[in-house]
Write a structure and sequence with these properties.
By secondary structure, the chain is an alpha/beta fold. About 20% of the residues lie in helices and about 30% in strands. It is built from six helices and 13 strands. The mean pLDDT is about 95.
Length: about 290
């Protein structure tokens, strides 16, 4: 259960919990694209509400490729309700209404390359605009994150000061995610340049996986050398671009079918263990 959340800096947020927190980690919704499987997306977000989850969105919540400035624009790739002169405004206002049932569950919305492209081309920030309007409209407390950042989960187990923490490093992603490596090589680059995190989470390349990378650490308090698990996860998309393989941007570039879905994460802390226990589960099925 979440007791409080705080913004430490522009891309660092602290979440204060009791013994357990349930999360749904999502990225690459491409919510405004006609190819977004909204039935599956809504089903997963509704399931998150049933489970009492907090939801984090790690970039590319929006597609926003249909403005006159964008060479990728196509009449078939815009939803009718967004086909207006104030295209960006229409998408944001519609999203504020659509995501309303999840106002008490969405914790943080980060940036992806689709949102930063809007910022560069039009000098307006779609994520900050969405978050501000969402909070004002619904009385919510959603945070805007960064393209990358940290969510620090802090568990207060007793009144006597017994505490645990678990640190999530999120980063939307970069590169194309090769057909062979599927983005895993980028994970190893991060492992070589980052430390102090329990989990490093990326999206962007529309793959879905969870890897465990044990690393050696020295416990100066106990004077012991130990192995510590660093979790590498990648969340996929809700944008179905392959379909039957007939054609289109995705097909013409020889890209394979991609998994749809996200990741459940349960964090549990107790007095017996010095570390928080994470449980990752793929979120792909249609829940009833």
């Amino acid at each position: 259960m979440v007791k409080d959340t705080k913004r430490i800096s522009r891309n660092i947020h602290a979440v204060y919990c009791d013994k357990t927190i349930n999360l749904l980690l999502m990225s690459d919704l491409h919510w405004d694209n006609p190819k977004c499987d909204r039935d599956l997306l809504k089903n997963h977000m509704n399931e998150a509400v049933k489970r009492g989850c907090k939801i984090i969105l790690n970039g590319d919540t929006f597609c926003m490729m249909q403005g006159k400035y964008d060479p990728r624009r196509s009449k078939k790739d815009i939803r009718p309700e967004h086909n207006k002169a104030n295209y960006i405004d229409a998408v944001i206002q519609d999203a504020v209404n659509w995501f309303a049932p999840y106002k008490d569950h969405i914790l943080l919305v980060g940036y992806g390359n689709h949102e930063t492209a809007i910022l560069k081309a039009l000098e307006t920030d779609p994520i900050q605009r969405f978050v501000d309007l969402f909070n004002t409209t619904h009385g919510a407390n959603v945070y805007a994150g960064g393209y990358g950042g940290v969510v620090d989960f802090k568990f207060n187990l007793t009144d006597n000061g017994h505490r645990r923490k678990w640190t999530l490093r999120y980063y939307h992603g970069f590169g194309g995610g090769g057909a062979v490596t599927k983005g895993v090589i980028q994970d190893q680059r991060f492992m070589a340049s980052m430390e102090g995190y329990d989990c490093i989470w990326q999206g962007h390349v529309h793959e879905l996986y969870h890897h465990i990378n044990p690393v050696e650490v020295y416990d100066s308090h106990q004077k012991k050398i130990k192995a510590r698990n660093v979790h590498q996860i990648r969340t996929s998309t809700y944008k179905e671009e392959y379909e039957d393989g007939f054609g289109g941007f995705h097909i013409e570039r020889g890209r394979p079918p991609k998994p749809l879905g996200s990741m459940w994460l349960t964090l549990t802390a107790n007095l017996r263990d010095s570390e928080v226990t994470p449980e990752f589960t793929f979120c792909q099925q249609f829940y009833v």
